[in-house]
Design a protein that fits this description.
The protein is an alpha+beta fold. The chain folds into three domains: 123 residues, Beta Barrel (Lipocalin), CATH 2.40.128; 91 residues, Beta Barrel (Lipocalin), CATH 2.40.128; 154 residues, Glutaredoxin. The protein has a nine-stranded antiparallel β-sheet. Strands 10-11-12-14-15-16-17-18 form an eight-stranded antiparallel beta barrel. Strands 23-22-21-24-25 form a five-stranded mixed β-sheet. It is globular and about 65 Å long. The N terminus is likely disordered. It comes from Chitinophaga tropicalis. This is Redoxin domain-containing protein.
Length: 420
C-alpha cells in the first residue's frame, strides 16, 4: 500500500477541503445512494468483489456497512470535498478514499495509513443497487458438486505453511464458509460455485481475501488463496470430516524451568507495568497478546472486553500487550487507544513494540516462541501460568467457537474459585 504518513493524510484532507471550498459555488456536494452496493477491488490483476450497504442521506449521518454472509461491519463516513469521502476502517490503520462520480458510481482506493509503510494501494470501483457478489442474476451455471462440509487444505508456498481447514456451506450456487488455521480464522467468506469452479471473497476492514479454485473429477479441490496483495498460496483440498488443526493449547508453552511469565512494558501513558505490581497480586490474570492490525486479535478483544466487564469484581485482572506496525509509543497510543474506545476495554493496555513475532518472543522470554497474534495466557492467583491458547477462532466457526467459550468459562470459574 502506498507510503503515507499521518501528516500526509492531514495534508491530503486539507488540500481536498481547500479544493472543495474553491469550487463550492460551482458544484453541489454529491453523496451516495442509500442501499446495497457492489464494489470490485483489483488485486494482482484479479477482480475481487465485495458488497456494502449505505444508510444515511448525507455524510454527517451515514453508516457504511461491509457485508460478508451473515456478518456486518459498520464504519463512519466523512466528507472531505464536494465529491470525495473518507471511510476509516475503525481500529485498523487503513481507510477507503472514495470519489463520487456524476453518474453515482464510486472510484477510489483502499490505503494503509501506517506512517512510512510501503506497498501498493488497492484500487476499486463500486455501483449502487447491485446485490450480487460474483455472478449477475440469471447468469448462473448449475453447480457440478455440493462442496458443503469440512475440507483438509494442503498449502503450498515458498515458506513452510501449516495446513488449514475449510468449513464450507453451499446453497445452490451460493457458497459461504470460513478457513481456519493455527493462528485463527478468515472471518466469514461469501462466494459462488459455477459448474466445477468456485470463488470466495471477504472484506471486513483489513485487506480483502480472495479464493479461486476448481472441483476436480475425483471431487478434490485445487485453487489459490490470496490475503491482500503479497500473501498468495496455492492449495489442494480433500473432504475430511475428521480433520482437525493442532491443539491450540499445546502450541505455545513455557520453556523448561519457567513457571511464571515476566515482562516490564509501558502502558499508553508511558508508565511501566509488571506482573509484580500490587494490582495483580493474588488475582487471576489474563494476558492477551495482540495487534490492532490483526483481525483475529480484534475478534478476541470483542470476546474478552465484555467478559471482563462482567467478571472484573471476582478477583480477576486482564492485560493486553499490543505489538503495532510502528515501534513508537505515540503511534501505539493512537492505535491502541482506538481499540480501547471501540470495545470499551476496562483493563490495562501495554505497548510491546513493533509487530514482529521475533520481537514478541524477546519481550516474553519465558515462552517457547511467539507463534501467533493473538495468544492468550491465563495466570493463577499464585502468579503461575496455567494455560496458553494460540490464535482465536470466532463465532463463524460454529462448534469450535462454542467449545472455546464453554471451556474458557469453565476454566476461569475454576481458577477464580481457587485459594492461594
Amino acid at each position: 500500500m502506498k507510503s503515507i504518513t499521518r501528516t500526509g493524510v492531514s495534508g491530503l484532507l486539507a488540500a481536498l477541503l481547500f479544493t472543495s471550498s474553491v469550487f463550492a459555488t460551482h458544484r453541489k456536494p454529491l453523496f451516495l445512494k442509500e442501499g446495497v452496493w457492489r464494489g470490485v477491488f483489483t488485486v494482482n490483476e484479479a477482480a475481487v468483489p465485495f458488497n456494502f450497504e449505505l444508510k444515511g442521506k448525507d455524510a454527517d449521518h451515514a453508516v457504511f456497512s461491509l457485508i460478508n454472509g451473515s456478518r456486518r461491519d459498520d464504519f463512519k463516513v466523512k466528507r472531505i470535498s464536494a465529491d470525495s469521502l473518507y471511510i476509516k476502517m475503525n481500529t485498523y490503520d487503513a481507510a477507503i478514499f472514495a470519489r463520487i462520480e456524476e453518474e453515482g458510481r464510486i472510484t477510489g482506493e483502499y490505503r494503509s495509513l501506517v506512517p512510512n509503510f510501503r506497498g501498493s494501494a488497492l484500487p476499486f470501483t463500486a455501483e449502487a443497487g447491485k446485490k450480487y457478489r460474483f455472478v449477475e442474476p440469471g447468469k448462473n451455471v448449475a453447480p457440478a458438486f455440493d462442496v458443503s462440509g469440512k475440507w483438509e487444505l494442503q498449502i503450498y508456498s515458498k515458506e513452510p505453511t501449516p495446513n488449514r481447514v475449510g468449513l464450507l456451506k453451499q446453497d445452490g450456487n451460493k457458497l459461504t464458509g470460513v478457513i481456519m488455521s493455527v493462528v485463527g480464522d478468515s472471518r466469514e467468506l461469501e462466494g459462488t460455485i459455477q459448474g466445477n469452479e468456485f470463488e470466495l471473497s471477504g472484506f471486513t476492514g483489513p485487506s480483502p481475501i480472495y479464493i479461486k479454485g476448481r472441483i476436480n473429477d475425483d471431487k478434490s479441490l485445487t485453487g489459490e488463496l490470496s490475503l491482500g496483495i503479497y500473501n498468495n498460496v496455492k492449495f489442494d483440498g480433500a473432504k475430511n470430516e475428521d480433520v482437525e488443526l493442532p491443539d491450540p493449547y499445546k502450541l505455545t508453552y513455557l520453556k523448561e524451568g519457567y513457571k511464571k511469565l515476566d515482562f516490564s512494558l509501558p502502558d499508553l501513558n508511558g508508565n511501566t507495568v509488571t506482573l509484580n505490581d500490587e494490582k495483580y497480586k493474588g488475582k487471576v490474570v489474563i494476558v492477551e497478546i495482540i495487534g490492532t492490525w490483526c483481525p483475529n486479535c480484534t475478534d478476541q478483544t470483542a470476546f474478552l472486553a465484555p467478559w471482563f466487564r462482567k467478571n472484573k469484581d471476582r478477583g480477576v485482572e486482564a492485560i493486553a500487550i499490543g505489538f503495532e506496525q510502528k515501534d513508537d509509543l505515540e503511534y501505539a497510543r493512537y492505535t491502541l487507544g482506538k481499540l480501547k474506545e471501540k470495545y470499551g476495554i476496562e483493563y490495562d493496555i501495554l505497548f510491546g513494540g513493533i509487530a514482529d513475532k521475533k520481537v514478541a518472543s524477546e519481550k516474553l522470554p519465558a515462552l517457547n516462541r511467539m507463534m501467533a497474534f493473538p495468544t492468550t495466557i491465563v495466570i493463577d492467583r499464585k502468579g503461575e501460568v496455567r494455560q496458553i491458547h494460540t490464535g482465536y477462532t470466532g463465532e463463524v466457526t460454529g462448534k469450535y467457537f462454542k467449545d472455546y467459550a464453554e471451556k474458557w468459562n469453565k476454566d476461569l470459574d475454576a481458577l477464580i474459585a481457587e485459594k492461594i
